[in-house]
């Protein structure tokens, strides 16, 4: 109730701010302490200027989020090559992402470069079903082991949510009926003493069919977000910035794949960051303080399951250009995690404990010449229970006239979760403080060919070995490290065309993820392909319209259908968005699941059919 009231007050404040600040924001300049830096640019942690070229990084900008018509992160990720999204029903339901065919807890999630995976979960995975995108300024996706950049849990990759000052003052209304709609607002003011103050708020609600396939009830979700950002240039070189991010998602959960009388979920998350950045011509230094907490409750037939965790993080980093040949960086990070949960009812489980991790990291980029660059990244983590472990990444990039070739060897690791270390349940399982971390090694080759100024082809081939996997033993009495390695491999291809008023891409991903006996791993399709198309169309009497058309095919995959592991049908998903700027305002019309594909992903959990959504945005 408190969060709902604060969001309501925040939205009122957005509309009542003076028009003076809008006039201040007219002159839009990048990295200008007196004007407006309109473009959000985020440097990858543990990197420096010359070795950024060897990082597999996809950026989704605020403008792309808006033009896609996305409401939550799943609307974004379901169309990204290499990410397989599984949501147990409609919006607000529990969601896992499998990156490049790896485990769902092998993708690290970050807020402005700081890890935010919830340590009160049993295996440390992030629930993407709780994340809505209206207050997010940018999303960065890293595919492949990223432990040298971000630390533990980035075996398959990382997803970084960026919050930043948004200088486009606006409010927005959208939806398709009184039970499925959203309202959001954004306002930025530059004060007389030089503070850039930004306030964003969003309310979402959704009520659609039952999460259970062929169910009879309707499930409801309500989501509230609040994001406050500020920054100030102390002088030409020194800047202070901070962000407060909070979200709350209330959802109806079904008890199981066959039981619609289920849980009422109340999922709250709060994060506070503050930092200093000192920048000169040849260096960039920053220090960040970060705190976040999760508070989750699930009510089920009179029983209350409670989950709580909090984390403190301190990070220092320096990036330096030594000369025309060499750039390097170094830094350190301390992270403290505490968490507990109590699961009641017919199934009981609990855990309570804390872990801490102290890390140091370095990197260097060396240019043999303008077309040959060697990049080296290292990170050492000293963990409370697993001790000292290292991650590293080596990349060599060769540039020809219109052709770029990159070779990368990288490692990753995942430390055991609090439950795997200290937890217990009524089946007799107990934690194991002697667990070693899961680890991975990956070899990857990347090629990019500029066929012309407008047409580009890129391809990546990778092979990953995962060892010391953490699983329950055969007696189901404790967790242990398995001695048999897993191997995953794949090829990612994309052809991209960009013209003056249109762009078009075609992609195809082939992934082979097998268990130790050679069989398919659950929820890991071998093949996905699709296309993304954007175009500005000019109508004589109505002016320009922006059209976004996205298509993704997902091949059959193995999943539990309630009685056995069987292969689920393939899917063809198409989303269409049409946007029109009119008198300084924006009107958009979005159709998700254009073909009205009826499918279950995961099996026994139905997904939304075709939906029409209108959105109106007023800029001021």
Short descriptors:
620 residues, mainly beta, Maltoporin, Chain A, 22-stranded antiparallel barrel, five-stranded mixed beta sheet, 6 helices, 57% strand, globular, disordered N terminus
Describe the structure.
The chain has helices spanning 2-16, 20-24, 62-68, 73-77, 147-150, 418-422, and strands at residues 57-61, 83-87, 95-99, 107-111, 114-115, 138-143, 157-162, 170-177, 180-190, 195-209, 218-233, 238-253, 263-279, 283-300, 303-321, 326-343, 349-369, 372-383, 387-399, 403-414, 424-425, 438-450, 455-467, 470-472, 479-481, 486-498, 502-513, 527-539, 543-554, 557-560, 565-568, 571-582, 585-592, 611-619. It has 620 residues and is mainly beta. It has one domain (2-619): Maltoporin, Chain A (Beta Barrel). The longest helix is centred in the first third of the chain and has 15 residues, at 2-16. It is globular and about 60 Å long. The two termini are 30 Å apart.
The percent range for strand residues is over 45%
Integer count of domains:
1
The helix content, as a percent range, equals under 10%
Low-pLDDT stretches are 1-28
Distance between the termini: 30 Å
Q: What would the CATH topology be? A: Maltoporin, Chain A
So, the CATH homologous superfamily?
TonB-dependent receptor, beta-barrel domain
Reported for the largest beta sheet, the result is: 22 strands, antiparallel, barrel
Number of strands: 34
| Radius of gyration from CA coordinates | 24 Å
The secondary structure category is: mainly beta
Report the CATH architecture.
Beta Barrel
Anisotropy-based shape: globular
CATH class: Mainly Beta
The assembly state of the depicted protein chains is single chain
In round numbers, the mean pLDDT is 90
So how many helices? 6
